[in-house]
Amino acid sequence: xxxxxxxxxxxxxxxxxxxxxxxxxxxxxxxxxxxxxxxxxxxxxxxxxxxxxxxxxxxxxxxxxxxxxxxxxxxxxxxxxxxxxxxxxxxxxxxxxxxxxxxxxxxxxxxxxxxxxxxxxxxxxxxxxxxxxxxxxxxxxxxxxxxxxxxxxxxxxxxxxxxxxxxxxxxxxxxxxxxxxxxxxxxxxxxxxxxxxxxxxxxxxxxxxxxxxxxxxxxxxxxxxxxxxxxxxxxxxxxxxxxxxxxxxxxxxxxxxxxxxxxxxxxxxxxxxxxxxxxxxxxxxxxxxxxxxxxxxxxxxxxxxxxxxxxxxxxxxxxxxxxxxxxxxxxxxxxxxxxxxxxxxxxxxxxxxxxxxxxxxxxxxxxxxxxxxxxxxxxxxxxxxxxxxxxxxxxxxxxxxxxxxxxxxxxxxxxxxxxxxxxxxxxxxxxxxxxxxxxxxxxxxxxxxxxxxxxxxxxxxxxxxxxxxxxxxxxxxxxxxxxxxxxxxxxxxxxxxxxxxxxxxxxxxxxxxxxxxxxxxxxxxxx
Length: 527
Description:
single chain, alpha/beta, Alkaline Phosphatase, subunit A, ten-stranded mixed beta sheet, three-stranded mixed beta sheet, globular, Alkaline_phosphatase, metal ion binding, cell membrane, magnesium
């Protein structure tokens, strides 16, 4: 009876009885669990026939900071947003047939940052924290260690193989994750020359925004934020003309967007800066797209202006429609980048809603592609000091209280807690009483054990979900830099091509046989 009362107290009145009965009645019957397990077993048996096709398309979904506790909590949230208990819900990534673990450490850091990890899962080489697109021989912030230590990414490998390539992110397009796809920089914070030391500029090091347009010519699709880093210093922003914090930052006075427009004017290229412009495009008439929707990062999905800012799902849809026109296929990097920001700020609700939105984008991409010719990988760069617990009953709102008081200070606590971060607060020498706060408010900062202005990353392994051609090669526990090697192998790009000659010939022949048979039949009929 205690369990029942706790569970019912967690839900609004109109859901209480219905949800409790639905869950309890079927789950008391062993047949329910046995049937579910047998159905899962039959699906697993079908996977014994491995998909060894060549991947025409590659998609990497990167949930920045999306550790396994975040995946689990996002799953529960997704279910509860649909008025379900939540625990039994499946995320789109949960449906992927192959799962592995990735070791995230940097070459000089036990607990990684997003730059060194991005170099690993995009360039196939582990690197130092704070650096992008360079090997561990490069030292952070030391410009003279750049040259000769550059490493290339799978995005470049795909482009050189004739595929279309794209980058979609909810952060700045020159932030740590996307920048490792195209830049070689010893400092992730060198967004424009306005953020670089004068001596680094004089020594010939290039800022990341500039490298976006110069290193890999004609990246087909670029969408995200970071508009201010493309414009001359003090130039007002098109969307926020009166806000100085959004003014251009470039000391060299270059207008990178204008330069891009001039260079691409005869190539069916379009620059857009708001949702209306983006969705008014006909993807069939667009070969190149540059979308910069905010001066900095895009807003959290919970705070997004639905009229002006596209969702991650909307950006992914447009990107795939443009990229898939290439008969040679495409490579697409998609980052749910603000999961990380929500956690750093201790705002679990923001972080988890970002994760749910990325999962929605994963599902939508799945509807637009095929597992027979598209390899899709979902992973994270690192985890966070985020977790949830406290013996919460089934169906407890993920942002709610644990069903007990602390037996030390006799105060309630939320299920979600951080190991460190800005949520630490002492009132009159004691832990703050969370029952006096709105702990389900969007920007509520969950309590933390150690006070920090910004919560830190976590060091544990992260999950890797995979489906499509050669997805079975992602299994067990791997170094993070293994990921792009597998994806390149699946698509016959980069350094692993020896296996492609025989398999491609066989696949081409098998693909041609139906057409050949039809042609022979037609000849017989005509004769």
